[in-house]
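Archive record:
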Amino acid sequence: MSKTVEIQSPEQFSELLSSSRIVVADFYANWCGPCKQIAPFYEQLSASLSRPKIATFVKVNTEGDKAKDVAQAYAVTTLPTFIVFRDGNVVEKVKSADPNKLKSVVEKLSNEIENAGDPSNSGGSSGGMTWLGAGLPRGYADISDIVDIRGTELLNAATEFSVRTLFKKPKPVSLDKSSSTEEKDWVESDTDEQLMLFIPFNSAIKLHTIQITSLPPKAQEDEDEDDIPMRPSTIKLFTNRPHNLGFDEAEDIQPTQEIEIGEDDWNENGTASIPLRFVRFQNITSLVLFVVDGDGDSETVRLDRLRLIGESGEKREMGKLEKIGDEPGE
């Protein structure tokens, strides 16, 4: 039995966008030959990847009396058009009946879809929602899911730590009193206090705030405080770089923004919520985060979680309809 949802109205579509983390929409028409050709492939994707409240595959008939309003709201002028939404925001568009393009787009989301249904990634009672160490600025959302995890790179991290840890959804183990795991659920630098993190995104974003969580342990009576990792103090951000920077290179290049994190910037969750110069972070496809130094005399720096707050993709209001017409050359 097909798991694909046939959209009947803008209201139904809006409800799905708010109740399902990922929505994949197929905009089609009954008279459209290419739409019919790719329909079986789309149904296969729907059958294999649909997950309740996590990933929903829908079809929107652009000839329908009410469903066509959905197509108008998202300026669909070519059939078929496939649009991928995450948290209600457009993150990908595929125009044409090209199964390879559609498969490539959906494969970017497949790991997220599978992991979202895995209880081990759910963060306890949060139902799979991402833990945040601080509140969200009004009008903005956590867009950390749009990070291309496979493309991330972290330089000067000790070998026993993984960059993927920084974007894990659950609460850090150091804050979870019910956790008995001995897993190293954080990242530490290796030979000195500097870290260089390259973060590519699956689509262009507008970045408003960065939330950094750092939870170094307190020194025990028999420990030297210089052996305890530090929280980051000075951070430089570089945008739209095609690859990671070297440490010497980063020292010589003007950053998009340089940030000093003071002791009072850390809240009770060990999180510093850092607002950015928003006008400089409007069309970002990658971010390099350079931890220059820490807040003490130790030789290492520790990071537990990293959250990115802003806007992803392009979201159109359902009430702002546009006339469907033919696009030149399509």
The domain at 126-312 is CATH 2.60.120.470 (Jelly Rolls). Residues 117-128, 314-330 have pLDDT under 50 and may be disordered.
